[in-house]
Amino acid sequence: MGAPQTSPKEIPRPPVLHQSLIITLFGIYRRTATTAIPVAALVDLLGDLGYDGPGVRSAVSRLKSKGVLQSESVAGVAAYNLAESVQATFDEGDQRIFAEYPQRRPNDWSLVLFSVPESKRHLRHQLRKHLRRLGFGTVASGVSIGAGQLLEQARHRLSRHGLAEYVQFFRGEYFFNGDVKDQVAQWWDLDTIHLSMQRFLETYHNAFELWTQRLEELRCEDGTDSAEERDRQAFQYYVPMLTIWRRLPYEDPNLPAEYLPADWKEPDARRAFVGTHQLIGPLASRYVARTVAAHLP
What we know:
The protein has 12 helices and 7 strands. The protein is an alpha+beta fold and about 300 residues long.
């Protein structure tokens, strides 16, 4: 008896850019191998997610022009790998994206002060962008605040991009007579972050339960075809989910619960992702590795 075929309606198809999915694929594959991914394998993998070949090749070309990917030849086969600078970003992000219970200390803050000469004002935008993408909020012009544990990430990120000379870093406690929660609501756009978490949960709130049941059904099937179909389905579900999720921990302030609204959705969203990641992440990785191997000599 063959494996049950999952209809497209059962696997969410959230609108995700080709480039974002490709970066996710490299992030998955680099955990189990160091070989670059052949272009033909990328076309096949994105094809499984409903994207056509010309669009994939165009996205790869754009990522190369941006310095995100670098071309390589593997046994005469045209392939791509992540640029070294991007690999460092993936390394620093693993704990934040995949941790089940991130470390969050009360009243432990990072403060980043930056001053950029008017002649280099374009660097101000870069500084703000990097700090915002690390989860920092804004106290005032040239003053950003974040959770204490983000300080080293900020130092490494800004140093790597040649921006550290414009910045001063501080770490310590914050003394305030009122409710810190009120201050946090001013420093971060909590409504927008909350909405992002809510949208993620609208699609994936029952992902763990769904896949627990699905894997149990597939265990009743016999043969290699069933295992391969299981891995393919896991890949189709997991890659868009990870692509959407991996940005959310960087939007979140990463603060203790007492500093955030009572209905803050990040813990629910993290539980939904981490549980599903532990369940089907290895299956998706195996599918990627098998597809890549099929395109190598």
